[in-house]
């Protein structure tokens, strides 16, 4: 009797497995698919399922040029931003960091701004490269400052990041103001998918591919998340994984910033929720992070399209509201009781 | 198998000589400083493979620091550690990881893992992430050894301190290395599990031929379960030998600076220092 109760309790608190996991997966994918279909149909122009089935060329044209690219961009950017968040959390070993809370996003936009001002003729790839480089430098600066800060409580780490991001952001704002690029900067820092069209989002596929690479070496990131000592004890090349992680985070941040604009809090909220549901073994949790990240972005974008139809609220605003609320909840939530 | 009291450290031979690959952990003048404080002071010691070795000493004696340098988690400021003929600081990380595993004192993890996940990561040096049936067998055995089979799907942050401690030991065990370093493995463990832990160390040494090096605070566990006891104080090795040689009134009084009397109970040496 007692043993049965214990077993039942153990089962209830254990990581989801077997049928329950399959059910969760089915639910997640269904949500994603439904979101994608809605995203194809909703917007300023009229696209109804009936018209599509009837083969209305105008409706199909709209889907091909605008709705499909937008939906694909939402999926890729959402998944990549959430994954970049979880990677950053593993590298820093802190739940409350992500590219937009540690200055990576701001650094990327500063780099991109510099290119726009002083080397406007550079190709898109070149711009992204400079933006990524700036993002790496900004992140390294954060890690350096972190090493120098003597007291490292769970909350100081994101605070240091937010301050650093503020400084870099101010620098970018100053430059943008002087060179009359405030609008451009604002577009980078506020996610908005309304301008996504065929030919303007394809770089996001690169970011999607990088997300796949992260999945292939997921175990390494988990081990790094267990700390330098554990990584050394298990014979993992700590520096190599750090470098790969930084590169992934930097490139995906700057590509997302350039193509659709930053998606605040996404990389924070999704990994934390997934961690509560299935834990942090990335081999298992990363697909969840990607799917939920994509789904959340889809939903927020569709909401933004519906609220003040036929106009749109940029997704960055919707995400900011939703994300900040969940972030606060995560911070204030009672810490799990550890006996 | 009973390890004999090992030779004095000085007999280890000249450092750097192309000696045959002795199966041992050998420290040659290992030193660690923090600022002006010397935490580990020119320690030279030779621990031949096999058996259970316990390092005892007061707080701040440098035991854990020494063990961390052996496990290459901490770079030394002087000297070197050689395991089976290879300098730990100069050998490829994954090679060392298949030879030497360590349980650290501080096992707080920021990541949320299940017990089984954690123990499976102990196989990482062998699998690089692709677990085979053999790996799963190792994991099952390690879980079984530490009585964690029923808890294997629980998250670590839902366990008690003692259960978590055992989970980390299971991880080291799953790593299946010749040398197993345990930094205060009895932390958080009650009498039953502390005894089981030492019995496990004994079994790993006797049945599986492993070399278990532990840092212990309880001199009586060290006395009753070890083949070799190393006593440290102020970063130096004060005494090194069998329990009969080290667990003595003179050595313990000098090392711990308290009055200790030694009693022989059923052939085991027990130190009394409670009153």
Task: Please state the average pLDDT score of chain B.
Answer: 90
CATH class category name of the domain at 25-94 and 123-129 and 186-331 in chain A: Mainly Alpha
Number of strands of chain A: 0
What radius of gyration of chain A results from the CA coordinates?
A: 21 Å
Q: Could you spell the SSE succession of chain A in H and E letters?
A: HHHHHHHHHHHHHHH
CATH fold-type name of the domain at 25-94 and 123-129 and 186-331 in chain A: ABC transporter involved in vitamin B12 uptake, BtuC
Q: What oligomeric state do the depicted chains represent?
A: heterodimer
What do we call the CATH topology of the domain at 23-99 and 218-275 in chain B?
Rossmann fold
Major β-sheet annotation of chain B: 6 strands, mixed
**Number of DSSP helices of chain A?**
15
Separation of termini of chain B?
Answer: 36 Å
Strand order of the largest sheet of chain B: 6-7-8-3-9-10
Overall mean pLDDT of chain A stands at 86
What percent strand of chain A?
Answer: under 5%
Task: Explain the layout of strands and helices.
The complex is a heterodimer of chains A (339) and B (275).
Chain A (H helix, E strand, L loop, with lengths): L1 H12 L4 H24 L7 H5 L3 H36 L11 H15 L5 H25 L7 H23 L3 H8 L13 H14 L1 H8 L2 H6 L4 H22 L6 H13 L3 H26 L7 H18 L7
Chain B lengths: L23 E11 L2 E12 L2 E6 L6 H8 L7 E6 L2 E2 L5 H5 L2 E4 L11 H7 L2 H4 L5 H13 L15 H14 L4 E5 L7 H16 L4 E5 L3 H7 L2 E6 L2 E6 L1 H4 L2 H8 L4 E5 L2 E5 L3
Parallel strand pairs in B: 3-8, 3-9, 6-7, 7-8
Antiparallel strand pairs in B: 1-2, 1-4, 4-5, 9-10, 11-12
């Amino acid at each position: 009797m007692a043993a049965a109760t214990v077993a039942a309790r153990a089962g209830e608190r254990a990581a989801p497995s077997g049928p329950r996991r399959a059910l969760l997966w089915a639910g997640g994918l269904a949500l994603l698919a439904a979101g994608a279909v809605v995203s194809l149909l909703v917007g300023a122009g009229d696209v109804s399922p009936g018209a599509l089935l009837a083969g209305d060329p105008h409706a199909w044209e709209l889907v091909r040029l605008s709705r499909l690219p937008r939906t694909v961009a939402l999926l890729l950017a959402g998944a990549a931003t959430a994954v970049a968040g979880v990677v950053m959390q593993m590298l820093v070993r802190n739940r409350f960091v992500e590219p937009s809370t540690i200055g990576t996003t701001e650094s990327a936009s500063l780099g991109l701004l510099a290119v726009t001002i002083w080397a406007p003729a550079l190709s898109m790839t070149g711009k992204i490269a400079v933006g990524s480089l700036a993002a790496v430098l900004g992140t390294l600066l954060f890690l350096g400052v972190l090493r120098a800060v003597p007291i490292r409580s769970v909350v100081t780490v994101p605070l240091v990041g937010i301050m650093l991001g503020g400084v870099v952001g101010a620098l970018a704002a100053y430059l943008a103001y002087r060179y009359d690029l405030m609008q451009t900067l604002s577009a980078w820092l506020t996610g908005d998918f309304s301008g996504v069209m065929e030919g303007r989002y394809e770089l996001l596929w690169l970011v999607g591919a990088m997300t796949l690479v992260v999945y292939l070496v997921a175990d390494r990131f988990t081990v790094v998340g267990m700390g330098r000592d554990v990584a050394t004890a298990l014979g993992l090349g700590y520096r190599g994984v750090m470098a790969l992680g930084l590169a992934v985070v930097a490139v995906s941040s700057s590509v997302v910033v350039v193509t659709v604009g930053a998606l605040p809090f996404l990389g924070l909220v999704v990994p934390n929720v997934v961690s509560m549901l299935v834990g942090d073994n990335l081999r298992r949790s990363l697909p969840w992070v990607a799917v939920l990240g994509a789904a959340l972005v889809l939903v927020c974008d569709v909401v933004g399209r519906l609220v003040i139809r036929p106009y749109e609220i940029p997704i960055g605003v919707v995400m900011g509201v939703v994300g900040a609320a969940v972030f606060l909840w995560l911070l204030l939530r009672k810490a799990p009781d550890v006996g | 198998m009973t390890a004999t009291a090992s030779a004095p450290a000085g007999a280890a031979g000249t450092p750097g000589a192309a000696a045959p690959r002795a199966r041992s952990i050998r420290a040659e003048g290992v030193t660690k400083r923090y600022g002006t404080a010397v935490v580990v002071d020119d320690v030279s010691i030779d621990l031949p493979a096999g058996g259970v070795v316990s390092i005892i000493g007061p707080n701040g004696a440098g035991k854990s620091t020494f063990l961390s340098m052996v496990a290459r988690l901490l770079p030394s400021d002087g000297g070197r550690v050689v395991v089976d003929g290879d300098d730990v600081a100069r050998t490829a990380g994954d090679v060392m990881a298949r030879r030497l595993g360590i349980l650290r004192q501080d096992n707080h993890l920021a990541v949320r893992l299940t017990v089984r996940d954690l123990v499976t990561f102990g196989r990482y040096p062998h699998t690089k992430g692709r677990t085979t049936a053999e790996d799963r067998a190792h994991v099952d055995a390690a879980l079984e050894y530490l009585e964690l089979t029923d808890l294997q799907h629980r998250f670590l942050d839902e366990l008690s301190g003692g259960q978590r401690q055992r989970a980390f030991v299971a991880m080291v065990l799953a790593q299946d290395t010749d040398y197993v370093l345990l930094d205060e493995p009895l932390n958080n463990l009650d009498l039953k599990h502390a005894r089981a832990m030492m019995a496990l160390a004994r079994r790993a040494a006797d049945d599986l031929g492993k070399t278990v090096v532990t840092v212990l605070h309880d001199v009586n566990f060290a006395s009753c379960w070890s083949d070799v006891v190393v006593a440290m104080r102020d970063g130096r090795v004060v005494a090194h030998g069998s329990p009969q040689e080290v667990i003595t009134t003179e050595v313990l009084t000098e090392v711990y600076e308290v009055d200790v009397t030694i009693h022989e109970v059923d052939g085991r040496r027990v130190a009394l220092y409670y009153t």
